[in-house]
Design brief:
Blueprint (H helix, E strand, L loop, with lengths): L1 E4 L2 H4 L7 E18 L10 E18 L2 H15 L8 E10 L8 E8 L12 H10 L1 E2 L2 E2 H14 L5 H9 L10
Parallel strand pairs: 1-5
Antiparallel strand pairs: 1-3, 2-3, 2-4, 4-5, 6-7
Helix pairs in contact: 3-5, 4-5
Length: 182
């Protein structure tokens, strides 16, 4: 089994895997398009989390999961991305991704999580300044929303990936004083 990561799965996969490879998914792009009332915000001060949204392309990481671990990894990912009792903000999909470290090889079918555009937490249009304000203020069970953005940007940069949309949001964040968390 293959799993495609485009946000926190890049820097915190949380599951056993036999290898990771830079990868490209066509037809979708990475975007802060989902309100977070739990992981990166609260109902009173929602944060924003990344989703795969229609159009463009997205560079990320594809993980190879041994067959013996596949069922456990799917359970872990569904618990993480589709927790019981929460709104369904993602759809689990199997999409074809191209490994960038194996030119000419055929695309691999990879499990990934695509933004649910029918969910009330899906954000259609939000000005970058408003998105940056939400990210700056958001803090939830998994920590500060700004750290989620900055960790994703840092790990993308380490992969040689420039995400201009995320970089613009980071540039709009106000300076923060004090220690940062994950």
């Amino acid at each position: 089994m293959w799993v495609f990561g485009y946000g926190s799965l890049i820097w915190r996969p949380g599951f056993a895997h036999a290898g990771s490879h830079p990868a490209l998914l066509g037809g979708y792009h990475r975007r802060f398009c989902l309100w977070s009332h739990r992981y990166r915000g609260t109902p009173e001060a929602p944060g924003l989390v990344l989703g795969l949204d229609r159009g463009g392309a997205c560079r990320g990481v594809v993980y190879r999961v041994p067959a013996a671990e596949a069922a456990a990894v799917l359970r872990y990912l569904d618990d993480r991305e589709l927790p019981d009792g929460a709104e369904v903000v993602y759809h689990r999909r199997v999409l074809r991704v191209r490994r960038l470290d194996a030119p000419g090889s055929p695309p691999v079918p990879a499990v990934t999580y695509v933004a649910n555009r029918a969910c009330r937490l899906y954000v259609r249009d939000l000005a970058e300044a408003a998105a940056a304000r939400a990210i700056a203020q958001g803090r939830g069970q998994m920590g500060a929303n700004r750290d989620y953005l900055l960790n994703t940007l840092q790990h993308l940069a380490e992969m040689g990936v420039q995400d201009r949309g995320l970089a613009r949001l980071a540039a709009l964040l106000p300076a923060e004083s004090g220690p940062q968390s994950e």
